[in-house]
Amino acid sequence: MKSLCARLCGAAVALIVLAGAPASAQQLELKVMAPAAPGGGWDQTARAMQQAFVASGVARSVQVTNVAGAGGTVGIAQFVNGAKGDGNQLMVNGFVMVGALAMNKSPVTLEQVTPIARLTEEIQVIVVPANSPIKTAQDLAAALKADIAKVTFAGGSAGGVDHVMAALFAGTVGADAKKVNYIPFSGGGESL
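Above: the chain sequence. Below: its structure as tokens.
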């Protein structure tokens, strides 16, 4: 899965950049921010971009920085305030940031950045440990309806797509979505 993501992301980055890149692009020194802890999807995407930029000759060097916290709101604030007008800085982000910005009442918004490419898609999946008594979606639904507090969901930051998915699942099966027992982590790696 990771190598497929890296290949697709690499091909997309190379095509996007090479399509409009001047000859001096090979001298670029880029900075890519992953506004999350290492190991998650944003980090993997940023590192795949790093490899693609260098391997394709588009950039001489690419530095990836991780800035964890609050569903990307800490990172976007640093990016907006620190990269003003610097075309050599990029930030990876996704849907989790939309909820995080709203939940955290962030003074920085997505209107302060310019989207340039969609490289990935966010698909939600619910998994359980192999030794869990929950084996099917029906088992999970029954457990939530029996006692929602005893079912723990783990995922990315509060308000992000993982949190929304857990609440939507709970609500769909008739449990009180407001009572979802959700444990947020600052990155996908920690959550796993």
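DSSP finds seven helices and five strands in the chain.
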